[in-house]
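Can anyone check this?
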Amino acid sequence: MDSILLDTSFCIRLLKSNDQLHQNAKDYFKYFKEKVEIYLSSIVIAEYSVKDDAYNLPLEFVKIIPFDFFDGKTAGEFHSILINNKEQVANIERNVIKDDCKLIAQIFNRKIGAFITKDKKSFGQIFMPIQKENGLKIELLDLEIPLKEFKGELF
């Protein structure tokens, strides 16, 4: 893994000190700062801004990527794949599907190696049909798994 895109759920836990996953987010972020390029989507910034000031995000450590024409085109193609796999995403809210398709498009177009989220299960349901259709390969990291466990270290 040489690059990672942060999900909104990750950013929330990173900055919310009373969240049960706050320490996991802090540990991962410290690890990412030392090892990989960290990306933050303008879509994540928009989602985060609903509840908090986006200037609280660790902007000095991330590369912000805008959602552009090519991302829109790719996201539409990915959403089309999911329309043909309705049973796979039947229990996921439509807005979540659309936003996740946008993030996957940004990952795909920029060849980002990984994505971290608290919502790995639902993201995986959206990601798997797209991956099967076009061979996209990214590492999905689950924020609920502590960094030491992810790295295979003893506690």
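Reply from J.R.: I decoded it. The helical segments are 8-15, 22-35, 42-48, 69-83, 94-110, 120-134, 147-151.
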